[in-house]
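About this split. The held-out portion is used to measure sequence recovery: a designer receives only the structure tokens and must propose an amino acid at every position. Recovery is the fraction of positions where the proposal matches the reference. Here is one held-out target exactly as it appears in the evaluation file.
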């Protein structure tokens, strides 16, 4: 399959070396698999994407969609995929023919991770949800009462993240204060940059509160000292930054407008009360001090109509 698109022999030889590379176990042993890509290898997701493009994506577009009575969609990342169908009969037919299709390419479907789930806006709730790429997708109503698909951190992923951050805090509590909190904040920022999506604030706050409690517990146990770190000081030192607030948009790219209103920095509760009481309409002007902000506390540029 790679030879159809790649003509560089040196690059193909490098891929062969990657496929023959062994797997280093925790006990120091090196295992050489006979087939498949090395587990955890750098090239494994890339090769899985290329292989499944011919084995699954093209087949889904040319065979599955014309066969279905209704609309059919597929969302895939490496070897994880979710398929959506309008009618249940189409989903059941695809559930039966998928193992046969993958078997032609010497692939198998994980039975414990494969199922048919009714996922519709007419049945909102947490009982009908599915995990995908570390998130749980479910239908629920927003503040206006409109059903929407929302995401939150998967329960297993959140528990494993809490165990890892606790183990790191316990193993590195001997570091100086600034070095310790710099390393802790770096790990919290990495968690925020992946799971920091709209509607996932509750799971993010749970993870940060757990990190603060673990830091308060283990830093107060080093050296026989007690109460050397208060919870208030720990909350001030642990500061994971939210990329959505940094970008001033609900999207993921700086400078690109999102699907919701932009964040307006510096707009206090008192100002919002004045605008509500007067009943007049105000237009926010760009801040003259620079930075691209629509509202600046020192400037207070508001033009009344």
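Reference sequence for scoring:
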């Amino acid at each position: 399959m790679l030879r159809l698109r790649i003509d560089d022999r040196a690059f193909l030889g490098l891929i062969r070396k990657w496929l023959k590379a062994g797997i280093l176990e925790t006990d120091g042993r090196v295992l050489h698999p006979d087939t498949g890509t090395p587990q955890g290898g750098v090239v494994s997701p890339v090769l899985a994407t290329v292989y499944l493009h011919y084995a699954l994506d093209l087949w889904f577009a040319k065979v599955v969609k014309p066969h279905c009575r209704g609309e059919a969609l597929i969302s895939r990342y490496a070897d994880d995929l979710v398929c959506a169908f309008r009618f249940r009969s189409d989903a059941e037919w695809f559930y039966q023919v998928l193992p046969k299709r993958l078997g032609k390419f010497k692939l198998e479907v994980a039975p414990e991770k494969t199922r048919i789930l009714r996922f519709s806006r007419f049945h909102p709730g947490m009982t009908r949800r599915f995990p995908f790429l570390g998130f749980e997708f479910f239908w629920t109503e927003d503040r206006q009462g409109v059903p929407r698909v929302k995401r939150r951190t998967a329960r297993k992923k959140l528990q494993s993240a809490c165990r890892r951050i606790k183990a790191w805090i316990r193993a590195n509590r001997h570091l100086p204060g600034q070095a310790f909190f710099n390393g802790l904040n770096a790990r919290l920022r990495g968690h925020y940059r992946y799971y920091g999506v709209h509607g996932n604030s509750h799971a993010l706050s749970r993870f940060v509160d757990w990190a603060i409690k673990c830091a308060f517990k283990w830093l107060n146990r080093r050296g026989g000292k007690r109460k050397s770190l208060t919870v208030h000081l720990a909350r001030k030192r642990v500061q994971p930054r939210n990329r959505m607030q940094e970008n001033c948009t609900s999207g993921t790219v700086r400078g690109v407008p999102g699907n919701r209103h932009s964040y307006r920095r510096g707009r206090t509760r008192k100002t919002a009360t004045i605008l509500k009481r007067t009943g007049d309409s105000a237009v926010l002007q760009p801040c003259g001090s620079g930075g691209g902000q629509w509202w600046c506390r020192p400037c207070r540029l508001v033009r009344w109509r």
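Annotator remark: The radius of gyration is 26 Å.
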